[in-house]
Design goal:
Glutaredoxin; 4-stranded mixed β-sheet; 2 helices; 28% helix; globular
């Protein structure tokens, strides 16, 4: 089952771009898909507007502002996101 990573941000946000770069490197080869969303597009994300970027795993927050690759790997592993086995 592919897990969904949602990166909440907005256009022109340099921290959002940095987090996207980290997430893309980490999830390459993992059973997870990255989706970017504008934090302003959903009223349910209103409380995150001044906190971007925010990374959600299946709707639950796992990172905010900045995260390093090793820390993100550790957090994803703790939530059961693993490497895709070659067929």
């Amino acid at each position: 089952m592919t897990r969904r990573l949602t990166l909440l941000g907005k256009p022109g946000c340099h921290l959002c771009h940095e987090m996207r770069t980290v997430v893309e490197r980490v999830v390459a080869g993992m059973d997870a898909a990255l989706v970017e969303e504008d934090v302003r597009s959903d009223p349910g994300w209103r409380h995150y507007r001044l906190e971007i970027p925010v990374l959600l795993l299946d709707g639950a927050e796992i990172a905010r502002h900045r995260v390093h690759e090793e820390e993100l790997r550790r957090r994803l592993a703790a939530h059961g996101v693993g490497i895709i086995s070659p067929s």
